[in-house]
């Protein structure tokens, strides 16, 4: 190949989205709304490794789940260890809590994380191979009020974004006293149905998963299947009733969906999903629940925990489905146009002052003419443009233009901060 030959441009791997401006503003808005809601409830930040020992997910998430059995990005590193790109956050949080002894301090341990997760799924709208989540986990206290708090943090985050078309579905998956009996009851029921071999095998390993079968011929047979919610132990039933009472008091609306099946095996007691109807097949914008046995399963104490994972990608799509354009806000508040080198020298410190005072500010760089500079001002989405030319240099002023009205007025440079701040706020 000669050096002058044009190379083919490379693309991101299938199912791996980029987040570029202006759309990336929506991504940031969603992520920040959720982390803000979590911070207000006392959740501290945890930054997790992107890859972990494969055994963590096999043990933590469950071998019978699709996530572990079909969707993991696992590979051998150069030292011959099997590692996996994290498919979800809860197992990693538990590992870190145990490893750092956080569970020996004040309980509950409340943690929040955000970032990419990896699942080898079939890509489609709202389903990616690299997906972005914000999650929270509250570990070490089994209190229904904490379940309600976790759910309310998600609800509050969605509301703060202006999202309205979402629903909360809730159920209880019971505890170690009622779950094994229910499992047997369900297995006995499933044994009497006309099912194919693969489904029978599923019924044997994890009968709950069969309840999630989408095929009409299977669904029809499942109509009279026993449901966990009707066979809860007294303690689990009371736990669930208390969670619901707290949610009622908080004004968080929900429907009970006793047939909810989550894609991960660790859930016990309260389990929930946030669903948005504007998204088609990939309607789950977030989900979570309590996990009683997980910490012990990973070699820690027998402590319970509860948390959620919210899909940032799908929440952005949900906002779009409701007509929001989180990117419409504009990239900056104020844009500088300086005509000539001397004017530019005057503009640079003005811009720095704007930024120090919390205004988002940018200016036309390079030596483009007035027309190009004003076009760039328009494109930036700034509410105000500040212009310094030869006349202004002589008089120590700048022209402040309000973009929405086209109004212009000369303002002395020493008064420009206050003036522009007021104009941006209008
Ligand atoms: P999950 O339900 O597997 O739960 O994922 C949480 C959310 O991540 C989903 O509701 C969805 O919005 C988003 N999501 C999942 N897979 C994809 C994908 N392929 N493309 C786009 N978005 C996706 C968990 O991961 C649990 N760790 C949540 C949790 C925390 N439970 C207790 N604590």
Automatic annotation (TrEMBL):
Belongs to the class-II aminoacyl-tRNA synthetase family. PANTHER family: HISTIDINE--TRNA LIGASE, MITOCHONDRIAL-RELATED (PTHR43707:SF1), HISTIDYL-TRNA SYNTHETASE (PTHR43707). This is Histidine--tRNA ligase. It comes from Dietzia lutea. GO terms for biological process: histidyl-tRNA aminoacylation. InterPro entries: aa-tRNA-synth_II, aa-tRNA-synth_II/BPL/LPL, Anticodon-bd, Anticodon-bd_dom_sf, His-tRNA-ligase, HisRS-like_core, HisRS/HisZ, HisRS_anticodon. Residues 38-349 form the Aminoacyl-transfer RNA synthetases class-II family profile domain. It holds the Pfam family tRNA-synt_His.
């Amino acid at each position: 190949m000669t050096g002058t030959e044009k190379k083919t441009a490379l693309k991101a791997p299938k199912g791996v989205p980029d987040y570029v401006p202006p759309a990336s503003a929506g991504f940031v808005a969603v992520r920040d709304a959720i982390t803000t809601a979590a911070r207000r409830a006392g959740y501290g930040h945890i930054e997790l490794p992107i890859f972990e020992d494969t055994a963590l997910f096999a043990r933590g998430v469950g071998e019978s789940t699709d996530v572990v059995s079909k969707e993991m990005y696992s590979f051998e590193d150069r030292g011959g260890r099997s590692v996996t790109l994290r498919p979800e956050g809860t197992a990693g949080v538990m590992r870190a809590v145990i490893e750092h002894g956080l569970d020996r301090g004040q309980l509950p341990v409340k943690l929040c994380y955000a970032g990419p997760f990896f699942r080898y799924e079939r890509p489609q709208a709202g389903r990616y191979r690299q997906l972005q989540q914000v999650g929270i986990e509250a570990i070490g206290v089994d209190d229904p009020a904490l379940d309600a708090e976790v759910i309310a943090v998600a609800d509050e985050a969605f509301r703060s974004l202006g999202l309205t078309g979402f629903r909360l579905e809730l159920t209880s998956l019971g505890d170690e006293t009622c779950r094994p009996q229910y499992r047997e009851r369900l297995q006995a029921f499933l044994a009497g149905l006309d099912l194919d071999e693969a489904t029978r095998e599923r019924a044997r390993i994890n009968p709950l998963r069969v309840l999630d079968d989408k095929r009409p011929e299977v669904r029809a047979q499942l109509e009279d299947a026993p449901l966990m919610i009707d066979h809860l132990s007294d303690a689990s039933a009371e736990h669930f009733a208390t969670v619901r009472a707290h949610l009622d008091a908080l004004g968080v609306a929900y429907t009970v969906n006793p047939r909810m099946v989550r894609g991960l095996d660790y859930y016990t007691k309260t389990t929930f999903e946030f669903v948005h109807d504007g998204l088609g097949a990939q309607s789950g914008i977030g989900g979570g629940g309590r996990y009683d046995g997980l910490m012990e399963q990973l070699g820690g104490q027998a402590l319970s925990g509860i948390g959620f994972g919210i899909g940032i990608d799908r929440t952005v799509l949900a906002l779009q489905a409701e007509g929001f354009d989180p990117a419409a806000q504009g990239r900056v508040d104020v844009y500088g146009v300086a005509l000539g080198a001397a004017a530019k020298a005057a503009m640079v410190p003005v811009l720095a002052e704007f930024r120090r005072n919390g205004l988002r500010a940018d200016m036309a760089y390079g030596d483009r003419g007035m027309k190009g500079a004003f076009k760039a001002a328009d494109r930036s989405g700034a509410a105000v443009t500040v212009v310094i030319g030869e006349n202004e240099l002589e008089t120590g002023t700048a022209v402040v233009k309000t973009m929405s009205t086209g109004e212009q007025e000369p303002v002395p440079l020493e008064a420009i901060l206050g003036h522009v701040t007021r104009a941006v706020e209008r």
